[in-house]
Amino acid sequence: MTAAITAATHQAPREIVIATGNAHKVEEIGSIFATLGLGIVRLLSLSEVPGAPFPEPAETGDTFEANATIKATAYARLTGRWCLADDSGIEIDALGGRPGVISSHYCTDGEERGMSRADRDAQNNQRVLRELAGIAPDARSARFVCVMVLADPSGAVAARSRGAMEGRIGEPPAVPRGGQGFGY
Q1: β strands within 31-169, DSSP E
Q2: Maximum CA pair distance of the chain?
Q3: How far apart are CA 86 and CA 68, in angstroms?
Q4: CA 27 vs CA 39, 43, 72, 121, 183: distances in Å
Q5: The pTM is what?
Q6: Bond into 99 cis (ω within 30)
Q7: Which of 62, 86, 87, 152 is catalytic?
Q8: Contact 176, 118 (CB under 8 A)
Q9: What integer pLDDT is reported at residue 127 of this predicted model?
Q10: Which pLDDT value is given to residue 10?
Q11: Cα–Cα distance between 99 and 127 in angstroms, integer?
């Protein structure tokens, strides 16, 4: 992504707004930047930018790329700063790629209903496991997908990256397990 930034602007930004109010996500991305030698870039959450809070753009895309682009470009225009946004979720082959872009609200078919994150995560997992009941272990392939989009202060996309971590959905009682990270 660094080469794309430099090529697009002839100079890498010194400050990037991470398009989230989640301080933990800013810390995680900061750790990744430091590992990549990009620690000279100052990262800010949206709440640290003058003028906050900003209206959240509607994530109306049907792909991770579309939703990350919506967030990056909207927040870049609103803040007048470089903005990095992500969209991520899990795709399960036996479920035709679901939950996909509605991963965080799968239990409510993509609708925000004011549930706590812990309750939503638990119900998302229950739904996935219920829908996979009877599916053989070798047919439970899945991947966690993350798309990152960087937009310049005018809202133009400067860089885009997609990554995926392949795996399988386990079976109860071995799952769910783990105490850190994300809901799936």
Answers
A1: 42-45, 83-92, 141-151, 157-168
A2: 55
A3: 5
A4: 12, 9, 18, 21, 18
A5: 0.86
A6: yes
A7: 87
A8: no
A9: 96
A10: 52
A11: 10
**The tokens of 19 are what?**
């398009």
Residue 135: other Cβ atoms inside 10 A: 15
pLDDT in tens, 12-38: 689 999 998 777 888 889 998 899 888
Regions of the chain short of the pLDDT cut 70:
1-12, 180-183
Would you give the distance in Å from CA 19 to the centre of its chain?
A: 10
Active-site residue, 87 included: yes
Q: Are 75 and 17 in contact (CB under 8 A)?
A: yes
pLDDT of residue 6: 44
Beta-carbon contacts of 59 under 8 Å, excluding residues fewer than 6 positions away, are 67, 70, 71, 87, 101
Predicted pLDDT of residue 7 = 47
CA-CA distances (angstroms) from residue 16 to 71, 77, 120, 166?
14, 13, 30, 29
